[in-house]
Every structure is written in structure tokens, then in C-alpha cells.
Amino acid sequence: HRAKGSDDPYKEIDGIATTRYSVGGLSPYSHYDFRVAAVNTIGQGPSSDVVEARTAEQAPSSPPRQVRGRMLSTTTAIIHWDEPEEPNGQVVGYRVYYTSNNMLPVNQWEKQMVRSANFITIQGLTPNKTYYIRVLAFTSVGDGPLSQDLQIIAKTGVPSQPSEFKGEAKSETSILLSWVAPPQGGPDNQITGYELVYRRADDTVEKKVSFEPTTSYLLKNLKPFSAYTFQLAAKSKHGIGAYTNELSIDTPQTSRSK
Predict the structure, then answer these.
(1) Any transmembrane segments, and where (predicted)?
(2) Which of 41, 47, 165, 233 is deepest in the core (most CB within 10 A)?
(3) Using one digit for the tens of pLDDT, what is the confidence trace for 204-221?
């Protein structure tokens, strides 16, 4: 058997002595080609014609991607997302969970469902409060996992969280951070800069640095062989948006020359 349309050689299963067999280890909701050949003590006979079959659906095994949002007014937000990387079937809808109290379990958050669309508007938010938003996809079989928190402040013109915030150590004393800018709602809400908050694991005092609009930043003069945490927020003329979730990166140990 092999995946339909694949140029890979057929995978063979030997030693089957019955006229029925259940093939495991296949991907959900995927087409496969099968053929059968009889074997005796002299050798293998010719293969049958190819039979095509598709595996059944499962619930998605990954969350929706690129969850992002912005405020349309002080009480209404619009949230967008992309289909999961591993839908495992036909996605029939999405559930969007939101709350201003992220200490509550998710099953106590407010929720809305949407079918055949990858965006939703949430109304009735309380101005100036920070909201936490998570999204899951579901197939006819069940629910997939929830996305990570998206934080958004209910204030017109304030940017939402930067997304895909990540970093890597470039030397013993520097870390390169990168991200995707949050969506901007028109010329009056342009991002004017970013604020980065960071802290060494052993320190209690946070440090802040501000810089012009960009999608990467090289932070220098760090201590070698140390764990650092980072959070990033975008700014507009209306104020500062919600910070990203905390990102942890280690600087490497100083290499000693022999």
C-alpha cells in the first residue's frame, strides 16, 4: 500500500494467511492505494488491480494557526485565524473562547461558534479590560486542541499582541528576537514602536527597552550562561497593546580558549 499520488515504493505486509486484513499506522482522512498478491512456496504471483480507499476522519490534532485580532470599537473585537495544520478531516466549524479572567477554567469562559468562516466578531466587551482569546477547530468526530492565549485590550486603536514571538542566542551575550507585527486598523492606528520587557532568571528587577517599528531586534550586553524571559508589546499613538506570552531563552556558556 502507499499514499495515493505518491511516487514512493509500495509498503509490503508479509505473512497474511487470511482473506481479510486491517492495515494500521495510516494518516486520518487520507487516500491510499492497495493491491494484493498471493504467495506460495515457489514465489509471489501477480498483483491485483489497485483499489483506492480513504481512512476515516478524526478530530483535529493541532490548533488553528495564526490567531490574531483587533478592536473595531471599544466594545467589539474581530478575531481571525487559519485552518489547523493537521485537520484530520473536514473542519465543520470553530469555537472561540474568551474571558477577562484567565484564572477561570476554559469551560467557564464565554464562547461563540462559527461555521464555514475563519473570523468572528465579539461584542459586548468591557472597555479598557484585557481579554484572553482561544480558538479550536472541530470535525464531525470531535474537537481539536485549543490555540494559545491571544491577549487583546478593549480599547480602540491599541494594537493587539505581536504573533510568532521567538528568539535565538547569537552569541554568549546577545539574543536575536523576531515576531510578526499585529494587524493594523487603518492609518490612524499605525504601530509607532515596540516595548520589550526582559528579566534574567536570577534577577527580580525587569528591564525595559523601546524601539521603532520593526520585526526583529538584537538584544546585546546580556550575561553568558543565563536564562532570560521576554515579553513584547506594540504601541500606537492611542497607547500600548497587550504583551505576548512569556518567552524563555538561554545564553550559551562562554567558550574558553585553550
Answers:
(1) none
(2) 233
(3) 899 999 999 999 999 999
Q: How many residues does the chain have?
A: 258
Whole-number Cα distances in Å, 178 to 27, 153, 160, 201, 224:
33, 22, 16, 21, 20
For 13-64, strand residue ranges (E) read 31-34, 37-39, 44-47, 51-54
Q: Which of 158, 165, 217 is nearest to 183 (CA)?
A: 158
For residue 151, give the amino acid letter: Q
Where b means 16+ CB within 10 Å and e means fewer, 66-90 reads: ebbbbbeeeeebbbbbeebebbbbe
Model's pTM, two decimal places?
A: 0.73
**Residue whose entry in the numeric block shows the C-alpha cell 508479509:** 14
User: Could you read off the pLDDT of 24-74 as tens digits, one per residue?
Assistant: 888 888 889 898 989 888 888 888 888 989 888 999 999 999 999 888 888
Per-residue H/E/C for 192-207: EEEEEEEEECCCCCCE
Query: Exposed/middle/buried for 139, CB within 10 Å: 0-12, 13-18, 19+?
Result: buried
Domains of the chain are 64-154 (2.60.40.10), 163-251 (2.60.40.10)
Cβ contact 83:91 at 8 Å: yes
pLDDT band at residue 180 under the 50/70/90 scheme: very high
Cell numbers 473585537 correspond to what residue? 77
| Span of 51-55, 127-131, 173-177 with lowest mean pLDDT | 51-55
